[in-house]
Amino acid sequence: MNTLSRSMAVAGAFFISTIGFDASAATKTLKYDILRDGSSIGTHAVSIDTNGPETKVDVTTDIKVKVLFVTAYKFTHESKEKWVNGKLVSLASKTDDDGVPKTLNATAENGKITLDSTMNGQNRRQFAAKSAIPASLWNPEIVTQEMIVNTLDGQLMKVNIKDIGTEDVQAHGSTVAAHHYKISGELTRDLWYNSQGDLVRVSFPDKTKSEIVYALN
Q1: What is the pLDDT of residue 24?
Q2: pLDDT, tens digit, for every residue of 99-130?
Q3: What's the mean pLDDT in 139-161?
Q4: Beta carbons within 10 angstroms of residue 128's beta carbon
Q5: Are 124 and 154 in contact (CB under 8 A)?
Q6: How far is it, in rounded angstroms, from Cα 118 to Cα 113?
Q7: I need a surface site. Which of 24, 52, 160, 193 has the fewest CB within 10 A?
């Protein structure tokens, strides 16, 4: 089995356990510390509310990078996703990227996803396949994709996925076994998911080559 096929098989099992298709209701909230070269710079949270075939996901991120006690960079992001039977129905996000406002409204209709975004007052409309996955990372199905949607501005990003295998990482204050995937291309991320399909760790370099880590707490 090649790398992508193995990734798809594993991710498919994770996906079913994460989103779920039974009639039961369940709510899960995952909270992360955001670190830059080991120092805390913010928080990230994902709330997953499943009720039968419908899943609603709220994502919030709050980052402040300080240099000599002065805020050098600030980032806030909020998004709401709605899924039905494992397919994205809608996504709405609002972002302040260090003073640059961005909004995105995505809607599945007519066999595709319409992506309406605004950045610095400029509007743009794009389209994605109905099967497209947003780059909010909580959904392990992302490791089966070759094209993903930027949740800030709707940009379509071509990616390559490499299955690294199982590793021990720190999560919930203890060591857990998690499956490691490396995303490269127009998005660079290292992702670790546990056996329940929960995202337990994210790592990537920022523009200054500092290491950014999202660690599940």
Answers
A1: 62
A2: 999 999 999 999 999 999 999 889 999 999 99
A3: 97
A4: 20
A5: yes
A6: 16
A7: 24
